[in-house]
Design a protein that fits this description.
mainly alpha, 73% helix, globular
Length: 466
């Protein structure tokens, strides 16, 4: 009965999220429902457990969410993102419409632009290109999903996205953890994803389906005049990658930096400098990227309130993203405190295929990501609850912590893209399409992404390389 209460709570949360209700409101509601069914007092469960864990998450990752959103908005409003998209699409042309969209998204994501901003930035160009090439519009969301929500987000070593940064706080690693395994996963995902999309394109077009008659959210004619040169537009993205690499992998941080703060009795102080190097590095890199983007594209900002609007909208927009994830983290920790969760945790930790924690980690992370509808949320919950057990297991089985980082990061981007995922709902809305029209092709990408984490585990088991 205890486990059934947890399952009921999870089902209700998934259902409400799919129906479009805010996770910020309903995550605590269903967490407290589960707590009350198992005898925990409601108010302490809310103020001390739920809110305590949610606040800890905000403290750790809010700078990454905020600066990522501001960076994306600045790239968009200065015209730098349009310049890059236009250059890629122009160079590849109609014949390679699918590849052009996938690469455009991947470059933005790997360069540090927020996933949601990428959707808005690339869609108008994708729609125009697909219309000219008479490629079915229903494939656009899957193309954007492959470029934005898969390898560029968490498989390529050095990705500045939050799903590649979160593990650094738990494992003391950097964003460049397990570069060989990550590169292998990237190639697998890109090749298999492109094969799926090209197969679907050929099949639909052979059946006589073209772009189709669409009226919802069809983009107006694009103005390509006065855009910055593409080679200048990519400079902020390169700066983010270079600065992040320098401060995470080259620069030697003073291990005593936190010592003066230990006497202040701060409740959320990081245990060691190595646990925050990943966050510090990406914060510095994002600030540098924003400054370079403004320097290059400042003249293209609207004359009235251009800079103010870009910074304000980016900062305010980040609040919804982090509060959604923080609520999911708070929810997960309430569930983890319940007696019924012990049997669930024992099952997940009991997955001993291969004799290492990697399979247990991959299954746990992707399952929680699917349940919460959030890659970063599922990842944070799983690592918060079980990372210490996985670390201890890894130390006894000879698995490097870098592999724990890469597998967890890749696994969180697997089943998170189920129909109730907020990014999927937003993506379809922006494209003016429905789940019925486009989700089948997105789900193909979801399956490939989920399998890729297990492919990386197999690669490590066979070769020992990471």
């Amino acid at each position: 009965m205890e486990v059934l209460g947890i399952i009921l709570s999870l089902f209700l949360l998934m259902f409400m999220a799919y129906r479009g209700f805010s996770v910020i409101l309903f995550a605590p509601v269903f967490a407290l429902l589960a707590a009350s069914l198992q005898g925990l007092s409601i108010m302490p469960s809310y103020t001390e457990l739920f809110m305590g864990k949610a606040v800890a998450y905000v403290k750790a990752f809010f700078p990454v969410f905020m600066l990522g959103a501001v960076f994306g908005k600045v790239m968009e409003d200065t015209g730098l993102s349009r310049s890059i998209s236009h250059a890629i699409i122009e160079s590849l042309g109609e014949k390679h419409a699918v590849l052009a969209v996938v690469l455009s998204c991947a470059i933005f994501v790997y360069g540090g632009v927020s996933l949601f901003v990428v959707v808005f930035a690339v869609y108008p160009f994708a729609a125009s290109l697909f219309k000219e090439a008479n490629v079915p519009k229903r494939l656009i969301p899957a193309c954007i999903a492959l470029g934005s929500f898969t390898f560029a987000m968490d498989a390529i070593p050095g990705s500045p996205q939050i799903t590649n940064i979160i593990p650094t706080s738990f494992f003391g690693t950097t964003a460049y953890a397990a570069p060989i395994a990550g590169a292998f996963g990237t190639v697998c995902l890109f090749v298999s994803g492109m094969f799926w999309l090209e197969y679907r394109k050929r099949k639909l077009m052979a059946a006589g389906e073209g772009y189709g008659d669409h009226t919802l959210n069809e983009p107006p004619a694009q103005d390509y005049s006065n855009l910055p040169k593409w080679y200048l537009a990519v400079m902020p993205l390169l700066i983010v990658l270079i600065v992040n690499y320098f401060f995470s992998s080259v620069f030697s941080w003073d291990s005593t930096l936190l010592v003066p703060f230990t006497t202040m009795k701060l409740p959320l102080l990081a245990p060691a400098v190595k646990n925050v190097i990943g966050i510090w590095s990406i914060v510095i890199a994002m600030v540098c990227g924003i400054m370079i983007a403004l320097t290059i594209g400042f003249k293209n900002l609207p004359k009235e309130g251009g800079l103010q609007k870009a910074l304000n909208i980016g900062a305010i927009g980040s609040l919804l993203a982090i509060m959604n994830t923080a609520s999911e983290v708070g929810y997960g920790n309430v569930i983890a405190a319940l007696p019924g969760f012990k049997s669930i945790a024992a099952f997940l930790l009991g997955i001993k295929i291969g004799g290492t924690p990697l399979m247990s980690e991959a299954v746990s992370v992707t399952t929680l990501a699917g349940i919460t509808g959030s890659g970063s949320g599922g990842l944070s919950i799983a690592l918060d609850l079980m990372s210490k057990d996985w670390i201890a297991w890894a130390n006894t089985s000879g698995v490097p912590l870098e592999m724990l980082h890469r597998v967890s990061s890749m696994a969180c981007g697997g089943m998170d893209t189920l129909p109730h995922n907020g990014a999927i709902i937003t993506l379809l809305a922006v494209c003016g399409l429905t789940h019925r029209q486009s989700y089948f092709d997105i789900f193909g990408i979801t399956i490939l992404k989920t399998l890729s984490a297990f492919a990386v585990i197999l690669f490590f088991a066979v070769t020992g390389l990471y």
